[in-house]
């Protein structure tokens, strides 16, 4: 699904990624954790072709992306990768339905087809009733679920999420996390999620610990309790 090989990235003299290799399989939910400044967002941006590594290779869905020009890359991204950010980044002047439709329209669907797809995505998120509302008329949790619907509408190979529940309260956080696993179970959707939430990381299939631009040994999630 995604193969990263020996990725390095520096900003001026700051070496942010120092040799990252990582394989993400179809249907996997992978979390990336680590201290602030470790390079998590940089890594996710490179995985999502929003940024280019200095060295190393990125292969997504069997396609090597480094040779692609910007236009080609944008089209590839539109079809293969869905993004969810910490702050939904919905367009304020459009309704929930229209926001979800946009990537489908960019992919060349007709208005009618895009509308139909967007409705079914919103329905999957339990947002049928909210389709006609603009972002400022939605709760934080609802906005984030609209953002997930938008990320999914073109049925991307992978959804990349950068602290998707970072701005949500406990209840909405848990609901969003449940949704990710639901989507994996129902659609076989692959997720890579950067998170500071230990509970979410604990639920994922695999946790990548990033420290100072390197992947460090994974810690066992549960220590064996010797007393039982
Ligand atoms: N465009 C840029 N130009 C210069 N430095 C950058 C740029 N983007 C990131 N950095 C620096 O690279 C380092 C890693 O940043 P990154 O955003 O990947 O960290 P992070 O692990 O996502 O942290 P956080 O948990 O705080 O979001 C930081 O020191 C940051 O200041
Ligand atoms: Mg970050």
Written description of the protein model:
With 228 residues, the chain is an alpha/beta fold. It has one domain: P-loop containing nucleotide triphosphate hydrolases (Rossmann fold), CATH 3.40.50. Helix content is 36%, strand content 25%. A 6-stranded mixed β-sheet has the order 6-7-8-3-9-10, sandwiched between helices. A hairpin with a 2-residue loop joins strand 1 (2-11) and strand 2 (14-24). Helix 3 packs parallel to helix 5 (140-152) and helix 4 (111-124) packs across helix 5. The longest helix has 18 residues, at 170-187. It is globular, with a radius of gyration of 18 Å. The N and C termini lie far apart (40 Å).
Please name the defining characteristics of this protein.
single chain; 228 residues; alpha/beta; Rossmann fold; six-stranded mixed beta sheet; four-stranded antiparallel beta sheet; 7 helices; 36% helix; globular; disordered C terminus; binds adenosine-5'-triphosphate
């Amino acid at each position: 699904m995604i193969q990263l090989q020996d990725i390095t990235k520096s900003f001026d003299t700051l070496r942010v990624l120092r040799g990252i290799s990582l394989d993400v399989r179809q249907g996997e939910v992978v979390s990336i954790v680590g201290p602030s400044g470790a390079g998590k967002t940089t890594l996710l941006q490179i995985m999502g072709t929003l940024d280019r590594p200095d060295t190393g290779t990125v292969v997504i869905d069997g396609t090597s992306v480094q040779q692609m020009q910007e236009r080609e890359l944008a089209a590839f991204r539109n079809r293969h990768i869905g993004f969810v950010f910490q702050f939904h980044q919905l367009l304020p002047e459009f309704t929930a339905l229209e926001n979800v439709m946009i990537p489908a329209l960019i992919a060349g669907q007709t208005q009618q087809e895009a509308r139909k797809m967007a409705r079914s995505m919103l329905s999957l998120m339990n947002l049928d009733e909210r389709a006609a509302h603009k972002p400022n008329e939605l709760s934080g949790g609802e906005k984030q679920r609209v953002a997930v619907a938008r990320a999914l509408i073109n049925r991307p190979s992978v959804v990349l999420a950068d602290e998707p529940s970072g701005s949500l309260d406990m209840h909405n956080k848990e609901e969003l996390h449940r949704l990710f696993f639901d989507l994996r179970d129902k659609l076989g959707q692959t997720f890579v999620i950067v998170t500071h939430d230990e509970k979410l990381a604990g639920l994922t299939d695999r946790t990548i610990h990033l420290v100072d631009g390197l992947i460090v040994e994974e810690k066992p999630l549960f220590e064996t309790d010797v007393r039982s």
